[in-house]
Amino acid sequence: MAITRQVITSLQRDGTDALGTRTVAMKIVDESIVSGSLLTVESNHFCILKSRGAVLNVYETGQYALQTPDKPLVGSIVQGFFGGSSPWVYEVIYINRSKLLVRNEGIATSAEMAEMSYVVDYYIHIDSKEEALDLITHMPFAGAVIDTKEIADYAGPAIEQAINQIIQVTKMENINERISDVREAVKLHLTDFLKVYGIMLNDLKVLITPRDERMREL
User: Which residue of 4, 6, 41, 166 has the lowest C-beta tally within 10 Å?
Assistant: First the structure.
């Protein structure tokens, strides 16, 4: 991320995307963001402009000259009244609209209490401006970014519940026969759960194996 000559962009100095393949959302807070600042939104992003907690606008791909409430005031006068700092601090939030890979891992127990390891791989994406707003409304920033690990942390309990409701009543020797049932249960739970955050689910895969290596050979 770079802010140069009041140009706000998600591209780094070497031209690479600061969001990459693991960052779902990135927040920039900077006092130099004022009216006339040029906001650049890449083709794989949405961008949200906020001030004091309120959403001012949501942008799709393109370049935009920001029009913010400080426009009628002269910069030096503003600085004088507010102790040398701008009275309006703006947040620029870039939302990644590319498909991102998320992984959840855990342990479930079969009907005979055998421990089974599971791995769930799935792709997520943000499809619209409305969903981008849902994301930042319902999933708060713990720092400057929301990444795929945080998505996995949020989704973990929903995935665990969906898997356990089937595995706990299934004997270990029959689990492979119920993989499709497990996958559908996880897909249903996870789709409903992520929808609240404006996140769409794609291409889900579930792998379940005995936790004890010796049991895998039986």
Answer: 4
Q: Which pLDDT does position 5 carry in this prediction?
A: 46
In tens, the pLDDT along 26-79 reads 999 877 787 788 999 999 999 999 988 899 999 999 999 987 665 443 444 444
- Residues 28-56 as b/e (b if ≥16 CB within 10 A, e otherwise) read bebeebbeebebbbbebbbbbbbeeeeee
**Integer Cα distance of 147 and 24 in angstroms:** 5
